[in-house]
Amino acid sequence: MKKICILGSTGSIGTQALDIIRKNKEKYKVIALSANNNIELLTEQALEFNPKFIVVTEEKNRKNLKDRLNHTNIEVLCGVEGLEMVSSHDEVEIVLTSVVGMIGLKPTIAAIRANKTIALANKETMVVGGEIIKKELKKSKSFIIPVDSEHNAIFQCLQNNEKNTVRRIILTASGGPFRGKNKMELKNVTPEMAVKHPRWNMGKKISVDSATLMNKALEVIEAHWLFDIEYDKIDVVVHPQSVIHSMVEYIDGSVMAQLGVTDMKNPIKFALDYPKRSYSVTEYLNLTKVSQLTFEEVDFETFECLKLGYEAGKIGGSMPTVLNAANEEAVKLFLDGKIGFLDIPELIKASMKNHNVIYDLSIDKILDIENKTRQYINELIK
Ligand SMILES: NC(=O)C1=CN([C@@H]2O[C@H](COP(=O)(O)OP(=O)(O)OC[C@H]3O[C@@H](n4cnc5c(N)ncnc54)[C@H](OP(=O)(O)O)[C@@H]3O)[C@@H](O)[C@H]2O)C=CC1
Ligand SMILES: CC(=O)[C@@H](O)[C@H](O)COP(=O)(O)O
Ligand SMILES: [Mn+2]
């Protein structure tokens, strides 16, 4: 049985992972689950999967959950320390990092230091900590299997091929809910409109990121670190059907693509079962129903976040942390109705301009830059 820790079990990725586990209880054992505020769902999950540990963010929720679960042996932990404790626990083999945001950084590093297999959905962690994570991986037996659909696709397309024969990788982007629109048309779009992704059913934050194309910006940086590939060899193409999850072009002109239905259970299951393959828990792809696969160039002028992502990635050092922290804060403000959709790239641009890059990164410095960036944005919008 594979022993699994799910960080962020109440979210879109977390609940889909538990759906897989529910149907394959003889294959997987849940050791730990975690949530931020959704203690109702976490209670249900704990009672169903009987993990050794659950983790919540706030002490008051920990006490509440302890009372609810006092007839069980489940230990209730709290905060980032709780996440670090479970992600590095002796009994855990695989850590599925499906929290949203750079809060995943410390628990992911703890898991690497404890030699765990990481099923990585939480892209923000790779964006801000890519350099440190690579160094930690070199000292450890841990390895990362990407869950993000594009990176999972690239990982599969790279199997058995020499890395030095890769000409470029091509990330596909759906284009999001506002594909084809111009800036004027985006001025008054609402959070409700922005979270309506045309192809995927995801958490609110990543859905807004898809709408601004920041999701693709984060994915470009994620790909740079995961596959050791320079930014000028990472391209993005808009592919509205989201059937091709990404591609690798080799120097001989061959292009390998990974196709599949738009269901995250497939990459999640791939990561949990790696290196084996097992029967799909979703429908299989029916190409005659897809009928057409189309491709378009990215509109970098309207969707400036992708341009900012390449810029931050190429500058390197602390700049991707600023890009990510500014985006996390701006998306929160947008979802709370405090700023407009087009303010998101403006606030990120201002934060990057205001930042003096440093290159000797540490976890503490990253977290300090995160705090300062969030404060700067809140000053700006006062
Ligand atoms: N959803 C998808 O299809 C895809 C997601 N990803 C990536 O996977 C990650 C998760 O995305 P998704 O599942 O959509 O997100 P959701 O918002 O649906 O879920 C996020 C999870 O993290 C928890 N969480 C939120 N904030 C905190 C915090 N401050 N501390 C601890 N836990 C927290 C949530 O708890 P609670 O429920 O209590 O709020 C929830 O369990 C993201 O990094 C995203 O970019 C990548 C590819 C596809
Ligand atoms: C499912 C997944 O991996 C998401 O990151 C998805 O790719 C979002 O779609 P966009 O291509 O619109 O960003
Ligand atoms: Mn993706």
TrEMBL record:
<protein>
    <recommendedName>
        <fullName>1-deoxy-D-xylulose 5-phosphate reductoisomerase</fullName>
        <ecNumber>1.1.1.267</ecNumber>
    </recommendedName>
</protein>
<feature type="domain" description="DXP reductoisomerase C-terminal">
    <location>
        <begin position="259"/>
        <end position="376"/>
    </location>
</feature>
<dbReference type="InterPro" id="IPR036169">
    <property type="entry name" value="DXPR_C_sf"/>
</dbReference>
<keyword id="KW-0413">Isomerase</keyword>
<feature type="binding site">
    <location>
        <position position="38"/>
    </location>
    <ligand>
        <name>NADPH</name>
    </ligand>
</feature>
<comment type="function">
    <text>Catalyzes the NADPH-dependent rearrangement and reduction of 1-deoxy-D-xylulose-5-phosphate (DXP) to 2-C-methyl-D-erythritol 4-phosphate (MEP).</text>
</comment>
<feature type="binding site">
    <location>
        <position position="122"/>
    </location>
    <ligand>
        <name>NADPH</name>
    </ligand>
</feature>
<feature type="binding site">
    <location>
        <position position="150"/>
    </location>
    <ligand>
        <name>Mn(2+)</name>
    </ligand>
</feature>
<feature type="binding site">
    <location>
        <position position="124"/>
    </location>
    <ligand>
        <name>NADPH</name>
    </ligand>
</feature>
<dbReference type="Pfam" id="PF08436">
    <property type="entry name" value="DXP_redisom_C"/>
</dbReference>
<feature type="binding site">
    <location>
        <position position="216"/>
    </location>
    <ligand>
        <name>1-deoxy-D-xylulose 5-phosphate</name>
    </ligand>
</feature>
<comment type="pathway">
    <text>Isoprenoid biosynthesis; isopentenyl diphosphate biosynthesis via DXP pathway; isopentenyl diphosphate from 1-deoxy-D-xylulose 5-phosphate: step 1/6.</text>
</comment>
<dbReference type="InterPro" id="IPR003821">
    <property type="entry name" value="DXP_reductoisomerase"/>
</dbReference>
<feature type="binding site">
    <location>
        <position position="123"/>
    </location>
    <ligand>
        <name>1-deoxy-D-xylulose 5-phosphate</name>
    </ligand>
</feature>
<feature type="binding site">
    <location>
        <position position="148"/>
    </location>
    <ligand>
        <name>Mn(2+)</name>
    </ligand>
</feature>
<feature type="binding site">
    <location>
        <position position="197"/>
    </location>
    <ligand>
        <name>1-deoxy-D-xylulose 5-phosphate</name>
    </ligand>
</feature>
<feature type="binding site">
    <location>
        <position position="12"/>
    </location>
    <ligand>
        <name>NADPH</name>
    </ligand>
</feature>
<feature type="binding site">
    <location>
        <position position="149"/>
    </location>
    <ligand>
        <name>1-deoxy-D-xylulose 5-phosphate</name>
    </ligand>
</feature>
<feature type="domain" description="1-deoxy-D-xylulose 5-phosphate reductoisomerase N-terminal">
    <location>
        <begin position="4"/>
        <end position="130"/>
    </location>
</feature>
<feature type="binding site">
    <location>
        <position position="150"/>
    </location>
    <ligand>
        <name>1-deoxy-D-xylulose 5-phosphate</name>
    </ligand>
</feature>
<dbReference type="Pfam" id="PF02670">
    <property type="entry name" value="DXP_reductoisom"/>
</dbReference>
<keyword id="KW-0479">Metal-binding</keyword>
<dbReference type="InterPro" id="IPR013512">
    <property type="entry name" value="DXP_reductoisomerase_N"/>
</dbReference>
<keyword id="KW-0464">Manganese</keyword>
<feature type="domain" description="1-deoxy-D-xylulose 5-phosphate reductoisomerase C-terminal">
    <location>
        <begin position="144"/>
        <end position="227"/>
    </location>
</feature>
<feature type="binding site">
    <location>
        <position position="219"/>
    </location>
    <ligand>
        <name>Mn(2+)</name>
    </ligand>
</feature>
<keyword id="KW-0560">Oxidoreductase</keyword>
<dbReference type="GO" id="GO:0016853">
    <property type="term" value="F:isomerase activity"/>
</dbReference>
<feature type="binding site">
    <location>
        <position position="10"/>
    </location>
    <ligand>
        <name>NADPH</name>
    </ligand>
</feature>
<keyword id="KW-0414">Isoprene biosynthesis</keyword>
<dbReference type="InterPro" id="IPR036291">
    <property type="entry name" value="NAD(P)-bd_dom_sf"/>
</dbReference>
<keyword id="KW-0460">Magnesium</keyword>
<feature type="binding site">
    <location>
        <position position="219"/>
    </location>
    <ligand>
        <name>1-deoxy-D-xylulose 5-phosphate</name>
    </ligand>
</feature>
<dbReference type="GO" id="GO:0070402">
    <property type="term" value="F:NADPH binding"/>
</dbReference>
<feature type="binding site">
    <location>
        <position position="210"/>
    </location>
    <ligand>
        <name>1-deoxy-D-xylulose 5-phosphate</name>
    </ligand>
</feature>
<dbReference type="InterPro" id="IPR013644">
    <property type="entry name" value="DXP_reductoisomerase_C"/>
</dbReference>
<feature type="binding site">
    <location>
        <position position="203"/>
    </location>
    <ligand>
        <name>NADPH</name>
    </ligand>
</feature>
<dbReference type="GO" id="GO:0030604">
    <property type="term" value="F:1-deoxy-D-xylulose-5-phosphate reductoisomerase activity"/>
</dbReference>
<feature type="binding site">
    <location>
        <position position="13"/>
    </location>
    <ligand>
        <name>NADPH</name>
    </ligand>
</feature>
<dbReference type="Pfam" id="PF13288">
    <property type="entry name" value="DXPR_C"/>
</dbReference>
<dbReference type="InterPro" id="IPR026877">
    <property type="entry name" value="DXPR_C"/>
</dbReference>
<keyword id="KW-0521">NADP</keyword>
